[in-house]
């Protein structure tokens, strides 16, 4: 609660002489925290994974952790959101937080992720048992990463699947993926 009070005081109280804190610096710090952490910590841990299962599990763990962090920070910085961000026409905190994962992390590894998912689908088609829930959750991430829009799934996964000769209905054509099956 102390952090929220500090943020509130900086954002909502009248300007006070002799205080260096202001909403500009606070927003910049928020950006810096998220922008520095993703490429320096998360991306290297994903790039070092070579096994499909390890990569996909680490991706989902990193995504869940990042969503939690972005949500928590956006709540702490809520007074910043309420006034300064709208006044300055800046991206909302949560949307900015999600883009900090999507742009430097997901964009850098999405081809590797797509290849890992397709490799697992190929394995299953050859008769091997795979973790379908893991595949479903990764495909859900392709949708969630664009805040519920299908663009990333369609462009970065579905188009490749269709071009590779995989037929049938895909996620965006109306099949809901569940833990009992997928494409």
Automatic annotation (TrEMBL):
Q: Which InterPro entries match?
A: Cullin, Cullin_N, Cullin_repeat-like_dom_sf
The Cullin N-terminal domain is annotated at: 2-163
Q: According to the lineage, what is the superkingdom?
A: Eukaryota
- Gene3D superfamilies on file: Cullin Repeats
- SUPFAM superfamilies in the cross-refs: Cullin repeat-like
Q: Which GO terms describe its molecular function?
A: ubiquitin protein ligase binding
The record's section on Pfam families has:
Cullin
Q: For this entry, list what GO says about its biological process.
A: ubiquitin-dependent protein catabolic process
Q: Which family does it belong to?
A: Belongs to the cullin family.
Would you tell me the protein name for this molecule? Answer: Cullin N-terminal domain-containing protein
Q: Which organism is it from?
A: Citrus x changshan-huyou
């Amino acid at each position: 609660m102390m952090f929220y009070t500090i943020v509130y005081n900086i954002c909502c109280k009248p300007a006070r002489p002799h205080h260096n804190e202001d909403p500009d610096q606070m927003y910049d710090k928020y950006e810096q925290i998220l922008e520095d952490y993703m490429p320096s910590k998360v991306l290297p841990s994903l790039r070092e994974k070579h096994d499909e299962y390890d990569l996909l599990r680490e991706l989902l763990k990193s995504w869940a952790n990042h969503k939690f962090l972005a949500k928590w920070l956006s709540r702490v910085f809520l007074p910043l959101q309420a006034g300064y961000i709208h006044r300055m026409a800046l991206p909302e905190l949560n949307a900015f937080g999600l883009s900090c994962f999507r742009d430097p992390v997901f964009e850098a590894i999405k081809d590797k992720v797509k290849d890992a998912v397709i490799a697992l689908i190929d394995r299953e088609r050859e008769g091997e048992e795979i973790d379908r829930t893991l595949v479903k959750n990764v495909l859900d991430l392709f949708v969630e990463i664009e805040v519920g829009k299908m663009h990333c799934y369609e462009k970065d996964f579905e188009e490749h699947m269709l071009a590779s000769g995989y037929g049938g209905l895909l996620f965006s054509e109306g099949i809901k993926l569940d833990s009992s099956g997928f494409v």
